[in-house]
Amino acid sequence: MPSELEVGQIVEGTVSGIAPFGAFIVLPTGKTGLVHISEVADAYVKDIKDYLKENDKVKVKVLSMDPNGKIALSIRQAQPKPAHRESSRESGGHRDRERRAAPQVTFEDKMQRFMKDSEDRLQDLRRNTESKRGGRGASH
After folding, report:
1. What dihedral angle (degrees, nearest 10) is formed by the CA atoms of 36, 38, 41, 45?
2. Are 6 and 27 in contact (CB under 8 A)?
């Protein structure tokens, strides 16, 4: 039984509990860590119970450990990278390089796009209602 965990280490643990936000994993050291729902799989996880159940054995990567004893884990990052990338590289597939170079769409990007779309819609709505009232110079 390993005595100490290290950040970056990959170990096998057992699912001891499932919550809407993640899964609790008992590690070989006896300590319990949390796999946040965003670290369960590469795909979007709506319900963690679709991926895990109690007493499942899972490989996890230790992401961080804070002084209070909280241990952040990832199942997603403990998985080996897909082998099909190597085969497409060997066949001269430059499409793989392009896919990797494409920027990741972050939450901030999505929020910024939403705010811009929302503002555009509001402007259209204001323009539309002003024209029905007789425009900006109309007396009320």
Report:
1. 110
2. no
Measure the CA–CA gap between 4 and 27, rounded to whole angstroms.
11
The residue assigned the tokens 């007789």 is 134
Sketch the domain layout of the chain as residue ranges.
Answer: 10-78
CA dist., res. 18 & res. 49, Å (int): 8
Rounded CA separation 124/137 (Å): 18
Q: Which CATH superfamily is domain 10-78 in?
A: Nucleic acid-binding proteins (2.40.50.140)
CA 79-103-59 angle, to 5 degrees, is 10
Q: What is the DSSP letter of 109?
A: H
Q: What is the pLDDT of residues 62-76, one digit of tens each?
A: 999 988 989 999 999
